[in-house]
Amino acid sequence: MSPTITIFKKEFRGFLFSPGFLLVCALVMTIVSWIYPTQLKVFDMQLKNAMFQQGMPTQGLNIHYAVFLRLLQYVNLMLILVVPALTMRLFAEEKKMRTFDLLLTSPVTSVQIVLGKYLAALGAILVVMGLAFLYPATTWIFASFSWLPLIVAFAGIFLVAAVYAAMNLFCSSLTESAIVAYVMAVIFNLSIWFVGIGAEIADGATIRAVLDHVSLNSHLASLVEGTVRTSSLVFFGSVIFLFGFLSERVVESHRWR
Fold it and tell me: Is the full-model pTM beyond 0.85?
């Protein structure tokens, strides 16, 4: 069995049986179970008002925009805080418990270590997002809608979470303290959204174009509306590769200390 798969299974199993992970899942389901019915009730009221008021704007009367995308906004906000909680111990805890040195002396490359832990984090994120997906998915029982935009929108948020995971794994590789790793990761997750704000207020056209290209928001916007752009996929892949490479360099540097 590949060492990457072995590390992935060990870490992913650790997530599934961790009380902290189960608590995170319970919190996410509690928040979503409160938000989603509220959004549905608001949407239902808008539909009823539209039936009695001719000439009312119908832009917000699409369930994808009025309900699903608003839910995903909340899911994204939760992931900004949840992903650091999932990744903070992946390296920091092992360094603190001195098991990281044992891992480095085993016949496993740095790339395999980073990749195995990163895949485990993605698996845990997929579980969390799967729980959130259950709510809009069950809407098909009493409403008809197109599944493809919903799936693409969730895939877009998953790609954003994958970027969070890569950045947060890098933060965990830098320290022995899980708390420090968590704080750094939250700062990273919040900072990347400010790039989009910088693109809106920048004066120079060139600077604005550069900031807009590296803005997470601009690449996510098309995905949540159900449109897949190659440039967006390349951007997400590039950021994930960059922070994965930086994590691998940090891990590799420990072999020579």
Answer: yes
